[in-house]
Every structure is written in C-alpha cells, then in structure tokens.
Amino acid sequence: MEARTGKKQGMVSFQPVVEQCEGCERIISDEGTAHCTTYVNPAAKWHLGICNFATHAKPEIKVVKVRINPLKAAKRASSRRG
Ligand code: SF4
Predict the structure, then answer these.
(1) Does the beta carbon of 35 sit less than 6 angstroms from any atom of ligand 1?
(2) What is the overall mean pLDDT for the chain?
(3) With CB atoms 3.0 to 4.6 Å apart as the test, which of 17, 34, 55, 60 could cross-link to 21 if both were Cys?
C-alpha cells in the first residue's frame, strides 16, 4: 500500500503552494519548490475561500452602522425595566 501512495508511514508529501499564497510567511522553500509549513494541500485550503492561516491576507470584515431612534430605544429600555 505504501508503494502505491508514494508515502511512508509518518511522512506526508506536501503539495506546492498556489498563486494566492504568494507573500505568506508560512512558505518554506524545499528543494526548489515552495511549500506551506501549515497545510499539506494549499490549493484545497484556498478552494472554499481565504486561507485562515494566511499572514498576508485577512478576511474583509464589513462594519454596518445601525441607526437607532433614541426615542424608541428609551421606550424599549423603560419597558424592560418593568
Ligand atoms: S498558510 Fe495558507 S496562505 Fe500561507 S502558505 Fe499555507 S496555505 Fe498558503
């Protein structure tokens, strides 16, 4: 079975990094190929969206301002008090 998969017990073959990984601090160069130190398959990590361990890219957080009517807020607060 080991011969078929090309892996030895306790060893994992790391896949090369993908284009989106460029600039990440977790990349190491091994025998001329860039690998990720965190994920075995970087392409799969980026397949569903942003890599959560990426040091060069952060997910965009949308801040939505909600306008609150001060009169309604006061009324709501007073009704909670009893
Ligand atoms: S941590 Fe994520 S972005 Fe960075 S090299 Fe690994 S897979 Fe790529």
Answers:
(1) no
(2) 83
(3) 17
